[in-house]
Amino acid sequence: MTDNLSDAPHQVTLGGSDLAVSTLSLGGNVFGWTADRAESFAVLDAYAAGGGNFVDTADVYSSWVPGNTGGESETIIGDWLRSRANRADIVVATKVGAHPEASGLSAVTIKSATEDSLRRLGVDHIDLLYTHRDDTGTPVEEFVPALDQLVREGKVRAVAASNISAERLTEALEFSAREGLAAYVAVQPHYNLVSRGTYEGPLAEVVAAHGLSAVPYYALASGFLTGKYRPGGAAVESARAIGAARYLEDPRGPKVLDALDQVAAEHGVAQATVALAWLAAQPTVAAPIASARTVEQLPPLLAASRLRLRPAELALLDAASA
């Protein structure tokens, strides 16, 4: 067994921005959902203590929980930032455009939703603002200038896009360049070892051609890539169990688990660590997103920032997931 763990600092710069972020982004979707305030604070504390500085949330988190209205995650993160007095140390990313009461990318919606996020976070600026999903009914000529205005006002440092096609991304980038407006510096795609086609191909090619960074979500496939879900295995108690278990029906699922087991055993690390390290090694990927409901779930995630997979190991995982 060899550890192949690097001790070097692990930060990267997102696209053409000045945002230096850790190579694991902490997903805040569980805050106010499966993690209460105290549990969320503990996870955030442990993440920061482990060298992480890139926290991802959205205005819609966690509106799906009965009694919630959305913004609960932002509120918890904002409370944590104030209580720890560490705002300058944390790169805060949030998203607008998918909240049930602030849906779409009209200029009015972008402005009002961003103001609401600033209020819930209790900050004077958002480091990275994503358009959460594309709104094909709104032209780039409307939403790109709205994002640019937020940057010019100092309310947002950089902008990015989640859930966008290669065509619309290209259109937005070309318009930004033509008009001299703030341009997307990153994308947040659905991408992991058992969902490669959701990013690889045209979208990844546009990202590479324009020097953007990718910050993938569902990096662990709803927990499937942690190795907890096995053919014929015991049921797992998790809010994401149904989503994760479906990968067992995909012929690639068991193959990927076998490859993860092999590489994880070689390095003496968890399967989740290897899955995230594979993702981080892919072209254009800057920082996979993974969430932790408890402090105990965090160490394997943080370890991915230190693991460097060998070419043969990357090839093994590539073949299993093809």
UniProtKB/TrEMBL annotation:
Q: Which GO terms describe its molecular function?
A: oxidoreductase activity
Keywords, ordered alphabetically: Oxidoreductase
> Which ranges carry the NADP-dependent oxidoreductase domain?
24-320
Q: Name one GO cellular component term.
A: cytosol
Q: Which InterPro entries match?
A: AKR_Detox_Biosynth, NAD(P)_OxRdtase_dom_sf, NADP_OxRdtase_dom
Give one Pfam family. Aldo_ket_red
CDD domains cross-referenced by the UniProt entry: AKR_AKR9C1
UniProt name for this protein: Aryl-alcohol dehydrogenase-like predicted oxidoreductase
